[in-house]
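We keep the chain:
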Amino acid sequence: MILPDTPLAARAWGRFGDPVAPVFGAVLVFWRGAPSGWQGHVGFYHGEDAGAYHVLGGNQSDAVTVTRIAKTRLLAARWPAGVPVTGRPVRRTAAGLDLSSNEA
């Protein structure tokens, strides 16, 4: 598996592996601040509801959590190159979960 040249830069994960539809276990890359800016956030697809992805990630409110991030912020969904896609979309409810606007 080949990691991005700068794995600490969230947006670099947009070039990781191969593109894939968002499915359980996929790496999801989001913009933060502005769509054309340099800031981003990366995490793993854990599920989705109608308007947001449920993302398992670190440094979300200074913890490892599952956070709802708007689907409109998605830049890329990626899967390790050469590895069969085994995940599938997982439908979840948004009940009681706030929509994140800043994952830091």
